[in-house]
Amino acid sequence: MPAETEQSTAEPLEVLRWYTRARKIPRFVGKAPGGGRYPGGPYTITQAVGAAAVLIAGQQTMSVWGRFGVLPNLAILAVAVAATLFGLKLVKPSGRDPVSALLALMAVTTSNRWGHHGERKIITRTPHAVRHRVNALMGPSPTQPQPDPLPEPVLTPPKSRGVLVESTPGLGNRTVVEQLLAQVRDHDPKARNR
Amino acid sequence: MRHPIVDMTQHLCWTSSGVVWATWRISPVPYGRRPVKEKRDVKRLHRTLWRSLTGEALALGVSVATDPVAVVEAQIEGVDLDDCPDWALEAEANLDRLEGLPLGERVFYLSVPLANPGTKRWSASWDASMGRLRDGLQLPRTHRSAQEIRFRIEQARRLQAGIPSAFDPRRVTVAEQVWLAAHAQRRGMLDIAPPAVGDDVTAALLTPKSGVAIPEPILDEGAKSDTAPKARVNPVTSRVLKVLDPRAMDLGQPSSYQALLVMTDTPAGGMRFPGAEFLGHLDNWGVDVDWAVRLRLNAREKVQRANRKSVRELDDQRDQQDGQASTGQHELDTAGNLLTEYQQKMAEDRLEVEVEHTVILAVPGGDAAEAQDNANQLAKHMADDADLRVERPVGTQEELWWAMQIGTPSTRLIRSYAQFATSDGFAMAVPFTTTKLGGRRGHPLCLNISSARPGIVHLDPGGYPVIGKSGSVAWVGELGAGKSVGMKTLAAGMVDTSGQLLAIDRSAEGEWATFAATITDSVIVDIKEPKYSMDPLRVLDKDQGPVAAQSFLTQLLNTSPQEVRGITLGQVLTPQYLAQHDLMSMRQVMNHLAVDCALEQATELAQHMDNYARLTWGRLIFDETLPPVDPHSPAVVWRTYGMEQPSERDLSEQHLYRSLRPEKIFGRAYYHLMVSCARRWAFADRSQVCVFACDEAHDIFSNPENVDELVFFVREGRRAKALLLVGSHDPDRDFGSETGRSLIPTRFVMRQTDLRLAQTSVRFLGISEEDPEFDSMVEELMQDTSPADPDLGVPEHRRGEAFLRDAFGGVGKVKVLAPARPDRAAAVHSTPPKSHSKT
User: Fold this and answer.
1) Which residue out of A8, A11, A15, A17 would a mutagenesis test of the B interface target, given it has the greatest number of B Cβ atoms within 10 Å?
2) Per residue in B364-407, pLDDT tens?
3) Residue A145 banded pLDDT, cuts 50, 70, 90
4) pLDDT tens for residues A90-99?
């Protein structure tokens, strides 16, 4: 056997052990403060809190829903408490806090459809038109120094439309595009009236 | 929610909660299939790391794809491609091949929130509040003061000093912090690699130039935006997070879908070490996953207080559950036993601390359904293979996603899923480890298949002498396992990078000769059709030639330096005598001994030599008309098929030795001459890498004098860049002396279906029989390493599998890649052609 393979492995067995169960002991309520035992117990804290909430709420609102006489009303309340105890038994005592779980479920159910971006919800609106009023300064700015006048452009009239371009006073400093726009305005009565 | 990071410099980031985080990139420690003793050392390193921390920390294991370009850059690094055009072609072909391979690796980070001591406890929170207010009022942000930065850097420096140097903690850059934040938004999508040291291009791309360096994603829990407008999303069945980066969307990139899982339960009996590396196992299940561990290190005194409280609770619960059926009592008993053990461990070790940890996993997918399927698959693997339970609690996807980010404070949800272990226990998870093999550059010879996500193994045997390592490589495996292909591929890489190849080829097909024929100016010395002379007086210089000739003739003529014939040979074969009589070749020496030499028994010596000179093979030595082998040729291959050597029994028993056939005697002397010449040529030029390949090495090592030459190769080759490349079946018996065998640092072990050979081979990798891995490796070597189908042989995708022990002690499973160039690939494959069937 090669020398380098000889090694001591006689070390104790090592186990990665989690002590979570020792820390998160499932808590139950089985005995009353006076020492008496709760019937059907012990109950988880969730069961106890839930049943107590149903009992108190039911008893406080009995005037609203209690229309069946004293004994039937008490029987209904007892059934509701029993149902709560039974239903909440399904919630694992070592699992997630049921209140926060419920809140998380509600949050994800009611959350915005398109998610959120940073701290803002993304809300998409229905299709709608965009209106605007824009002032565009086309000529040289009055606050800017006047540039040297451009050489007079030589325009070839678009033959297809039969538009005759004439030299018009006031067009001297205009650009080619501005001159074309001016010609269209001159030949369009609607535009001229605006 | 806004991204918590508001300010960054160097490896620090300030958050909106007033906490400053420092982040380091952690170099993983080699682990893989190393012996258990070394694994224990790695575990101790992790324990030291956990104990060096206080308060909270965030450990990250980020899965990144390997860029084929980076692999090819490492392949050609340090190589002048103008001088090595064949290597340029190979690199180009390799790039094409790598494009189709899903390569990846895991990078690790450790991020620690720095404490706010003294007045900073208030001032940091105040500054953070003011920052939020300024942001709300759209006021410009202010920079951190130089004093604050200096203070935080000093705090981080003290923390870094406690991290074991084996982890080589490297301060991340701002670019790397941006990359981490962006990566969280791009899981499962095409992504660039994290900026490496010296990677100026990536760093320049990621370095912020404005206040919105980190992409602001749109988060959509449940991927509701993918559904029809009026459709109701079931939050239970759609537990996934859709992350959409608007900037990436502008570039035509899709959204990232991520399923976030949290570890909720662990095996009641724990996990045995080695084997408890559950974070490392994540790479074995074929699911792309990032992991984050939110840590809180609790001092021993605090733990003992908490344990005492638990004892009181336990007593109370025993009372409360007194009348309950046995199940509840069993749980309490288990909790009680664990508490006792925990208290005991805390009491025994005064340095022990508690590691409160929440493990979060992020599994990406192409869409919501795929992400969830992947998450379910991972959860099933973890439950079945490791008895670990992971869940995707409803309504927590976004919170878990944020919890994986640097700078996010721990929340109640995260703490509610915390697991508790000692630092010694959690160290057994050894999260910062790697199965990486080989070095950073060199020949990309194999795929590392130690985990389900393969990586490239770069081997640079020719470069190892420069860093003080021997470059010799041994290949072990049964017939047809793929040794020769691997050896030739490795040799091809060396020849293509200006190295020299010397090889002995005893195969019937002349596989090495076929391979060498593809190399320009190669020389093939064939014993059956000699075209080159191996006359030692002609192929070696005037000083070394006579020594090699005397050694050759001593074996050929079975003389001894103490005998008269040996003395005569010794007198003739000296540089002075040869020069004086103008003897330039063995033929001339033979003729001189026959006619002109007056020394005792010269004539008998000449007659004896003449007997061998008349053999066909004798021409190799005694035919002056053949040109001598050029020792500077890039490849010299000696074909020896049909040439026999005496067995060990032949040599050890007198009567057998005396009746040896002349062919066997000539074979023995010729093998010795080849090895002798190879050694002299390889050590002649110390600047050039020279590899001496001995496939079927048992044939060469059967001669004790060859063993000495080869051991010299291994012992002294480091300085002269002379490498030995040996292949055979039985590492214990076929590689000569144990010294020489032990000094070969790089070892490939391929398929062995025989139990004894498999066990021997695993030991050759450095794994002892007492190691827990030993039996499983033997079984894997016999049954799951290039397994052969009875009818079809080894399937193409399983060829070349091997265990590799690299020159640095790393052990893992690899798959050898044949040359990427089709012509070279064809040349290295030695499988005999199929017989022609009649039609």
Assistant:
1) A17
2) 998 999 999 999 999 999 999 999 999 998 888 999 999 999 99
3) low
4) 777 666 777 7
Which helix or strand (DSSP H or E) is residue B694 part of? strand B690-694
Q: Cα separation of A59 and A62, whole Å?
A: 5
CA nearest to B398 within chain A: A108
Q: Average pLDDT for residues B816-824, to the nearest whole number?
A: 92
Q: Would an 8 Å CB–CB cutoff place A19 in contact with chain B?
A: yes
Contact B819, B494 (CB under 8 A): no
Contact call for A5 and B220, based on CB within 8 A: no
Cα–Cα distance between B242 and B246 in angstroms, integer? 12
Q: Is A92 on the interface with B (CB under 8 A)?
A: no
Best probe of the A interface among B2, B218, B430, by most A CBs < 10 A, is: B218
The yes-or-no verdict on residue B750 having pLDDT over 50 is: yes
Angle between helices B544-556 and B662-684 (to 10 degrees): 160
Q: What pTM does this model have? A: 0.80
Q: Cα(B710)–Cα(B678) distance, rounded to whole angstroms?
A: 10
In one-letter notation, the amino acid at residue A1 is M
Cross-chain residue pair A115–B235, CB shorter than 8 Å? no
* pLDDT at position B197: 67
- Strand B473-476 with B443-448, pairing: unpaired
CA B504 to chain CA centroid, nearest Å: 29
Give the residue on A whose Cα is nearest the Cα of B764.
A2
Nearest to B425 among A8, A17, A108 (CB): A17
Contact A101 B307 (CB under 8 A): no
CB B644 within 8 A of CB B617: no
Asked if B341's CB is within 8 angstroms of A115's CB, the reply is no
Test A16 with B428 for CB contact under 8 angstroms: yes
pLDDT tens track for B181-205? 989 988 988 777 788 766 666 666 6
- Of B674, B675, B644, B679, nearest to B662 by C-alpha is B644
Q: B571 with B577: CB under 8 angstroms?
A: yes
Phi then psi dihedrals of residue A190, to 5 deg:
-65, -45
Show which of residues 119-138 on chain A sit within 8 Å of chain B, judged by CB atoms.
119, 122
**Measured between beta carbons, which residues in chain A are less than 8 angstroms from residue B235?**
105, 108-109
Q: Is the peptide bond before B536 cis (omega within 30 degrees of 0)?
A: no
Query: Distances in Å between the alpha carbon of B178 and those of B15, B175, B215, B243, B477?
Result: 14, 5, 9, 16, 48
Which two tokens mark B512? Answer: 């090495």
Q: How far is CA B501 from CA B443, B505, B626, B638, in A?
A: 16, 12, 22, 11
Three-state DSSP class for residue A110: helix
**Cβ-Cβ contacts under 8 Å, B733 against chain A:** none
Phi, psi of B802 (to 5 degrees): -160, 160
**CB nearest A100 (choices: B272, B341, B413):** B413
Q: How confident is the model at residue B742 (pLDDT cuts 50, 70, 90)?
A: confident
Structure tokens at B636: 């010299």
Model pLDDT, residue B703? 75
| Lowest-confidence pick of A124-133, B660-669, B704-713, B787-796 | A124-133
Cβ distance B394 to A105 less than 8 Å, yes or no, reads yes
Q: Return the bridge partners of B363, or none.
A: B259
CB atoms within 10 A of CB B233: 19
Residues of B in contact with A4 (CB under 8 A): 742, 766
**B740 neighbors B470 (Cβ within 8 angstroms):** no
In what helix (H) or strand (E) does residue B748 lie, and over which residues does it extend?
strand B746-749
- Tell me the chain A residues in contact with residue B2 when contact means C-beta distances shorter than 8 Å: 118-119
In contact, B102 and B454? CB cutoff 8 Å? yes
Helix axes B564-572 and B586-595, enclosed angle (nearest 10): 120
